[in-house]
Queue: 3 jobs
Job 1
Amino acid sequence: MTYQAPVRDYAFLLRDVLQLERYANLPAFADASMDTIDAILEEAGKFTSEVLAPLNGVGDKQGCVWSPDFTVKTPDGFKDAYAKLVEGGWPALGSDPAYGGQGLPHVVNVAFSEMSSSANMAFSMYPGLTHGAYSAIHVGGTQEQKDLYLPKLASFQWAGTMNLTEPHCGTDLGLLRTKAVPQGDGTYKITGQKIWISGGEQDLTENIVHLVLARIEGAPQGTRGISLFIVPKFIPDANGNPGARNSVKCRGLEEKMGIHGNATCVISHEEATGWLIGEENRGLNLMFVMMNEARLGVGLQGIAQAEAAYQAAAAFAKDRLQGRSLTGPKNADGPADPIIVHPDVRRMLMDAKAIVEGGRAFMAWTALHGDLSHASPDEAVQQKGRDYMALLTPVVKAFLTDRGFNVCSDAMQVHGGSGFTEHFPASQYLRDVRIALIYEGTNGVQALDLVGRKLAADGGRGVMSFFAELDAFIAENEKDESLKPFTAGLATAKAELQEATMWLMQNGLANPDNAGAASTDYLHLFGLTALAYMWSLQAKAALARIAGGDKDPFYETKLVVGRYYVERLLPETSSRLAKLKTGSDLMMKLPAEAF
């Protein structure tokens, strides 16, 4: 089985569903004609399927190798593939032209990122984190820092990482101990240990730019006293080239369940030279620029691995012969029928297809709002984009990774016993995707962020705007009989989500444990509703194509899968609502020693 990039699906999303050419008058979209996008999608499909996908199994089996001189060797073929990545200009798609980027909207870059992650998740993490570092410096760096680092990061000639977690603290960054001592010349000496640093050491780039959270001596305790520093592996010389080796050392690699091809490092800063980025004691504000971008990227990883696992399962199901169809033989000349004839196998494949294609649309739609948050000349559109990015980031991250993991698990089930062996790719997809539910804030933390902070932000403006958009779509299309299954399902889900929101407002404030107990069910209710809207948008675009005389079966397939989502998966919203309304009493009743 060979990975096939979803080029056709992205063309449909960008042309027909999101209608990117509507924004051609905006400078940020000026170079994003559909002719250009089609060419990018085609070439991205070729690069990821022909260059990256063949190395996925290699990276899983070989892993990375640490040496006592603190260097790391990546799996065979990674270095050559990385050189081709840089040569092809793929890293620069969405970066600022002022620093060597191509300046395309992020929604276009999302397409390449998904294909890259599907083809080889471990490899794609190296450039993925680099773009996060680029974004943080772009937002908060001095002009001198931008001029020095951004061209090298935009081209991926240099790599970037983020150094947050320490052995004693993960999500609670207020506990960090890494310290920064000012040297009087604008530099700081950074001392401390960071763990789980993806791409913290590798042999792919000539330099690595670490963004490190640390506390300046005398700064307040807790999160209010955290600053952010640029700590390069090699200190740039007067010409901006890698110079003296900094005292940043990879002390070892984590032995992980999956993503073996990515170097997950223990990094020791031993009075390393660093430069403050942004204001003192405001490091988390800048780090969240990088972290929120990473969270959206993690949601994308959930869908990306689900797509690859689904493709493998579908290919296996069409090839594997076992049993006979319940309605009579479909392969009469053979000893048995392919297992794809069995309804329960179809259930798993249809669940996967509905989640993947709905989730892909959700990712792209969210990314477009992110683009409009700074590209639109209309302040109301910008504000809506900012509100949506804040509100939806935890939903994208947690919902798509939870559901992506389920798809990968079902893909293994379709493979049967073969899936539990290393002769087939199902095992790797399941192992690789599992980390996505944990890093950049576990999915439980995302749910708490959603109900504890994002819903109430700005008086609930973001969620009210989302409800208003769904209401407007339903009202505009409720008389269209061909769309009725979609608008009716969406209306029911939206009403349940609104009821859940009101319940949280009434019960969460009175007892915060109620909000915590309801948070995961609420997030999934939100995600299910969002995908119902995405399937409604896709159905409307597909029906328009069919009405215009397009005979491509792609569009009829969209309608069938969308109807399946509404009828088979969307009813879960009712059970999520019922569960969250039970509150926290029984959940919190037992004493700790009873567990």
Note: The mean pLDDT is 95.
Job 2
Amino acid sequence: MNRREAVALGEAPADLVVRGGQVFRPETRTFDDVAVAIVDGTVAALPEDAASVTGPETTVVEATDRVVVPGFVDAHTHLDLHQSFDAAYHYALRGGTTTFVTEASGVGTAFGARGVEALLDALADLPVTVRVAVPPQSLFDTFGPAEEARGDALEALLDDPRVVGVGESAWVHVVGREPPAGRLYERARELGKTVSGHGAGCSGATLQAFAGTVTDDHEAITSEGVEARVEHGVHAIGRCGSIRDDLDAFAEAYETLGASELSLCTDGVWPRDLLDGCMDAVVERAIDAGIAPVDALRMATLNPARHFGLDGKGTLAPGSDADVVILEDLETVDVASVVADGDVVVHNHDLRVGPRAHDYPDEFYDAVRTPSAEAWRVPADAIDGNRVEAIAYDEGLVSAPTTVEPTRESGELRADPANDIAKVGLFDRRDGESGFVGFCTGFGIESGALATTATWETPGVLGLGVDDADLRQAVAHVGERGGGWAVVRDGEVLVDLPYSVGGVASARDVEETAQLLSAVEEATRRLGIDVARPLLGVQTLTFTGVPARKLTFGGYAEVRERAVVGLAPQ
């Protein structure tokens, strides 16, 4: 008889017992007056009498008048952007999130499989469980050449038990095409692993075609969209995080669908928001939106665990991993204590773990090459006539095609701040040479420039500004700092935030990163930028996962038409 069985039979004491609380069983959606007995990091039993499994050496966690639930599972997030997670995990853990299913598009597009492996190594020893999806972005050839040489190594990652499947794939790269990433999808199916969709703007026959490839999607922003995904066999994931809050629509669909094919996620929590919570905040928001507490809890525990094949997660059944969260109440989802893998990491709101600095591969700290000053020059004879194609930024992740008439000076095309025309350029930060310089409108920038390497799903360095000298300086400064953000006006760096980890994440303490991100945003206001979320708008100018005009190394991406255009008016 092993120790777990002995505890279950009441013949031996447990290592740790959570007693006195109402224990939530997601399988039956019930709360029961039982204890949770833990041995060697595993739930051994849920006895009615805690005394039967409590010995003199047993650690006892009191949960009287509290609710005991499985550790929360974030069904879709981005742990390799903005903040190195080894310096931030404890904030998420403080809110009861013990398991994460994360994309790796930041390190994956920059370093390929080596980047994903480095991310897995960095997170391996943390007291949280992280499972990664293979990033397919470098294999897409819709708006530029595919990096097919990376295919074999990325495919091999699917054999790693820490990898749940293939990461988010936008429908424009999948439907009606045979992308090189198809090898990843086939291998994932063979292994019984998932393929995450990014179905923004996808509906009708296109959605049906997309559903033949993907297994889940977090991009439904209406109740009808959620229902359509579930009808076509796609697991729907509702999100509430730093990017969007779609839970009102999700809750409306839940009234029709029930909870069985629905999960919850953050889709990423930026440092400023992480200080206020992680999946605990999502569950609270879901309940406020009208989802029954038992179902909101299930959507954040058992449902995602089952969908992604996370054995031992999302439940407190005997044999499961000992990830336990104790809530003060269900109305506020106020986390009092947390047990992760059998260890008490939060006790009565006292966080017992902290950041764990990790040494990444040398290439992560030398990851940014920037273009020459000459690369930002747009010759006046690049077009016939006075107007050029441009991006019209709207809000959030949304932008559209437009044409503008930039200023002509000294044989060049330049920005015209009086008419809200800025210059914008994107270059491959791996070589500093491949790139495109165009124009945009909609940000309201009146002076200076900013630059960033926080370019979504693209290993780029992006510059946006109305002064060419400031633009070149901002981009060069970001390169010197190893990536991140820089805001420049009149030759002065107003603020910068280094992303020293691969050019995609800060290695600083979360609170410091949050403060600096706020400072960067405030500095963009000093340039005159007046949009609601300037940092989100700038970094997503590269994101072709939404059906809008975006920026690539080769020109503007017309997402719906799946074409790339240059400066010449169409």
Note: The chain has a mean pLDDT of 97.
Job 3
Amino acid sequence: MSRDHLPSAERSADSAEAPFLELLARGASADAYEQPVLLARAEGLPDRHVAALEQAKQLALRVRTEIEGRRRREAELSALFETAHDLAGLRDLDAVLRAIVQRARSLLGTDIAYLSLNDPARGDTYMRVTEGSVAARFQQLRLGMGEGLGGLVAQTARPYVTDDYFKDERFRHTRTIDAGVQDEGLVAILGVPLMIGPQVIGVLFAADRRARVFEREQIALLGSFAALAAAAIDSANALTDTRSALDRLGRANEIIRDRSAVIERASDVHDRLAELVLRGGGVDDVAAAVSEVLAGTVEFTEPGGTPTTAVEAARAAGHAVPHGDDWVVAVAAGGELLGALVLRGHPGLDPVDQRTLERAGMVTSLLLLARRSASEAEQRVRGELLDDLLDARDRDPELLRERAARLHADLDGPHVVLAARFDTVSADAGRQAGARRRLWSAASHLAATRHGLAATRDGGAVLLLPLGPGDTATALARRTAKELGTAVQEAVTVGASAPVDRLAAHPEAVAAAYTEGQRCLEALCLLGRAGDGAAAEDFGFLGLLLAGDRDISGFVGRTIGGVVAYDERRGTDLLRTLDAYFAGGMSPARTKDALHVHVNTVAQRLERVGRLLGDDWQSPARVLEIQLALRLHRLSSDGQR
């Protein structure tokens, strides 16, 4: 039957449904469905047609609502599926929780969604993730247990919703929570619990900044997201526990492997050290063997070569001690410090490796004692040669040179004779004897390492040491006092002679030099400079009395040599100006009268003298020395004429 032959009622219904089918097809808004009815009325169509349009509109709106519901449920299921997929491939808990909160906000169409977690350690709850929040205070809220709407949800383990937060009296309001909610401008809030088994671990919220009634489906949807969030947190915690357990197992395995390796290294170093002792190895061999085993650099240092505080700490503890990035173990025998073993740049040291280093220190001390025993005969020979020189018993130059050559000493080069002695005297004779033995041992060791000679004499030690290029008797005396004092752990005072040479041809010079060194030693003690070292040249004009050869030219040179050289080089009268200056009572006015020059000329000459002699040249002590040097220079100049 054609459309033209249909009853008029059916044709009217057909035509009434057509515009609404078109609206459904293009997904028009609900307001658009009023347009066909309004248009029919405006055109004055029959009431029957308008009624048909109204009926078709209601049917179309129901269909539209059904379609929208299906689409919403489809979107919700899709979001839940995506969230479950994220959870299945969980890598970053924060990322999963952010995705859950973002999807909940989007599907519920709220202004903000957020998630809080309980903190059992602090006994409160805190914001973990927020989406849509604009207030910093709200994002940083920490709430006491049972406070606010979230506290009510946590207590009852059930969802709660409020249409108007500030007017709702079902939960406990607090100033902190209310201030945060007010900052964010929230009105309607829905909260559902996050649960792992029967335990509430937090709350998932959705909220609007206007009054709103949340539907049952929306509450159920947010509950589904909360279940997924709780599962994500539970999975992350389980994964964290598993990783922690695996890490602990891994560390345990590493420790077992390290222990095994350390024990093997300890056994290896024990075998190596035993072999070294049996084949007569040296200290450097021990250091090299331990360096290889400990995978570091081990060095042996003489007394004084390592910071005293570190060595003393190791010596007192009887163990290796850390010092910065290094480890130090004292090498000692009885009360005598022989040196130290230092493991460089190895701040972390296993206890077994520490014991290996300590064992190496013990082996080193044994080797040093063995070497000392072997060298004592040589030391006695050195002492006998120096005794013969001091007493001038052997005057055959060739025989003296031959004896010295066997000890790797050269008597024809410049040497300094040094007298060394303890400053303190112990009432205990045994202790005093032990101290002297240590001094003699240290002096002998120093002489052997410096290609010199050493002997005991007058309750102390006497050394004959070569003087290197650029070195001075004073510097050598001070170094010797420091090295001997460090070795024997006592203050040792050292007096030095002026340099002497060609001792094989003039052995009698050794005795005179020793007398001079003793005088300097006594002068140091009288001046309260115990534990120091000095030569006659350090005592100014007093050195003339101490020196065995009365080195007048040396004293003059040290005192006013710069002025003498300047006058000779420039043809000036600085020496004559100094004479006149001191003769005139150090008055520039009287000096200019004596010299018949202008006072400015005197001032200029004295300024030049100050630059040559130093700023303190007019101090009382310097003035006395300068005047004596001027007189000695004048006397020596008159004698030459």
Note: The radius of gyration is 52 Å.
